[in-house]
Amino acid sequence: MSGSEVDLSAVNDTSIDSGVVYGAELLAFTDAVMARDGEAVAKTRAELGAKLGPEGVVDTAAVITMFNVVDRIADATGIPIDDGFTKDMRYAIGNELGMSHLTPEERANR
Amino acid sequence: MSPFQNSELHLPIRPALLAVHAQLLESFTRSGTWWTGAERRAIALEARAASTCGLCAKRKAALSPFSIEGGHSGPGELGAEIVDVIHRIVTDPGRLARSWFDRVMAEGHLTEEQYVELVSVTVLLNALDVFACAIGSSPLALADAQPGSPSRVRPATARIEGAWVPQVPVGADGGDDWTAAYGDREYVPQIGRALSLVPAEVALLNLTSESHYMSIDHVTDPGYSEPDRALDRLQMELVASRVSAVNECFY
Predict the structure, then answer these.
(1) Positions of chain B with pLDDT under 50
(2) Domain encompassing residue B39
(3) What secondary structure letter does DSSP report for B214?
(4) How close B251 comes to chain A (CA, Å)?
(5) Looking at the complex, does the CB of residue A24 fall below 8 Å from at least one CB of chain B?
(6) What is the residue range of A106's domain?
(7) Secondary structure of chain B: what % helix, strand, coil (to 5)?
(8) Nearest-5° angle of CA A38, CA A41, CA A45?
(9) Which CATH number is B71's domain given?
(10) In the prediction, which pLDDT does B217 show?
């Protein structure tokens, strides 16, 4: 992924071009699934499928699924951010978006 | 054959995904570590009902989710306090707080072990329903509960290490408990250890991660991508970050 130019603000504003290949279609499908809006899911799934193929739709559905697991487990068990995670790409994204402002101690005791 | 009723779409669901979905579905009706099969099934059905619960929708829209009283919509096979925990985890996880967790534990309706297993069943059932929604399928039906008793085995080394719930300590401190759950790994991210008070649920989480995203061994390597995926890592992380943003979760 090194050398890729991405605009992280697209994560919070889908009108912005993320710079990720088919990023707009990925985000539109993700939002539709998260809203459980059947009509929007069907429309955005077709648009994503036209770009990434049916395998791409399935794998996007899988990632959406997994992070609904990860987020809920993290929130329901109060796990702290581990040191290794600070090097992870998503931590950097979250940090830029102001989502990771808690220290491990603050997180555990919020 | 796919259990998902999406024959009109003909989506090529990878065999690894189908296998894990079948395992998860079966696990919801089988006796677990601290809950019977009937109880796990009841937790799963309550988790399914939460996404259309009127009270949860009102709470989600409220400034404080604890300011709105009322009854949840759902099967109601479990005690009201347990139902409330399940619904909050499904519908408003970003506003769960340490003070809420402490209150739940102090009320005495759940042990720490039961709570961790409940979290697992709740989030994994919700995961199957999210996937079904994404591919345009109806939610998968649950079979009848299987007979049997919970094993009630608690890892002897589990202790509080920063999370709200006890966890198996890393490496030598975790001894056989660590080896049983994580083999010879020297490091596992917190998310992989969150359910370690109930090791059987760690195994289900690992299977889910490997098939839907990647093995926990590779999560912190931003250059890694599973070879059989149609998305590159950057695309996966964009989707993951958007999901976490919607869920208001730092992960």
Answers:
(1) none
(2) 14-148
(3) -
(4) 6
(5) no
(6) 78-110
(7) 50, 0, 50
(8) 145
(9) 1.20.1290
(10) 84
Q: How many domains does chain B have?
A: 1
Contact between residue B44 and residue B28 where contact means Cβ atoms under 8 Å apart: yes
Say whether both A23 and A72 belong to one domain. Answer: yes
DSSP string, B131-159: HHHHTT-PPPPPPPPPP--------TT-B
How far, in Å, are A105, B53, B78, B95 from residue A110 at the CA level?
8, 26, 28, 10
Query: Structure tokens of B48?
Result: 């399914």
A27 and A61 in a single domain? The answer is yes
Residue type, A30: T
Count of domains observed in chain A: 2
Residue B157 CA to residue B140 CA, distance in Å, equals: 37
Higher pLDDT among residues B26 and A96, named by residue: B26
A10 contacts in chain B (CB < 8 Å) = 238
Residues A62 and A105 in one domain: no
The stretch A93-102 carries a mean pLDDT of 54
Full-model pTM: 0.91
In this structure, which amino acid lies at residue B119?
V
Question: How is residue B169 written in tokens?
Answer: 């300590």
Predicted confidence at residue A68, as pLDDT, reads 97
Which of A45, A61, A85 has its CB closest to that of B220?
A85
